[in-house]
Predict the structure.
Amino acid sequence: MSADPHTLSDALPVLSRRALPQELRERVLEEIAEQVERERAAALDSAREGLADNAGAEGPDEVEVARRVDGAPPEALGGAGPVRDQGLSGQKAITIPAAPLPKAKEVDEGPLQDLDGGLAVIDELLRHRGRLLRRIEEGRESLLIARSMLLTIVVCTMAIGASIGFFRGGVQVAFAAIKLPMVLLLTAAICAPVYTTLKAALQHKASLVADFALILCAVALACLVSVSLCPLLMLAALRETGYHAFVLLSAGLCLLGGLAGYVFFFQGMHQQLRRGYRLVTIALLFVLAMVSTQMTWIARPYVVRPASDEVPFLRDYEGSFLEAIRKSVDSARGIYDAVGTIDEEELYP
């Protein structure tokens, strides 16, 4: 192997000061050159192994490797700016492209590890939803996910209901905190078998536990988003906001949380279904809309005027949500039933 004059420039003065035969001097130069090449190859192999082991770690776009002849360890494995593979004189630069940083999708597609508990499930729901959807689709730890989401829904909806009932105060705080979890859980319990039946009818893999876990995760995400906005309800109640304005604010905050839950649920459904996605989507939207609105109507009132003398736990069951909407539209047009006008609290529970 021929000697590089740049890499051997530091060794030539030492050899020239010694009275060595020409043949011996050339042999020494060849041995030095071979040793340099071996050390350079070993340094590059070590750097490549380090890149493979640390592919998921943060680092720059290039990993620079430096190697000195005196046997010192590499100066850097990562860092900003180019670093040269110095050999004997530091004239030749070697840069090795680093592996790209993992994206969020790559993290979600990585190997699944066992969940430590309920908090780990909530963490995946908020940060790594793709990974959580994979667990549900593969049927891994579905019972743990369902239990964790069930507890999350109960705690969050109790906080949301209490915040809504705080507008009236008193016993209405407890009433609303009790009724809201019942409404959401009964809605999930009715819709989960419908989803499983539709999947089975389209010859997809159907599991009631996994489907129930998916719906609970969607409801839990909606509750987490909504409960984060509850301080706005408390602030509005303390500022003595008007009745109708508070009702609209409560509905708006719940709508934001519901949209987040719907998006997550339909993402999971799209991942599970290979055919018939639109049909199942339309059917479930209809079922969810009918069940959720009717359950909410039955469990009214949630917001009660502060001046009300009585605070009922449930109003008398009469009509339906759609009928109340029809009466409200007729009232706006000046058309009233023979019985008389409609109580505003019945229209805006």
Remarks:
- Strands lie at 62-64, 95-97.
- Residues 106-317 form one domain.
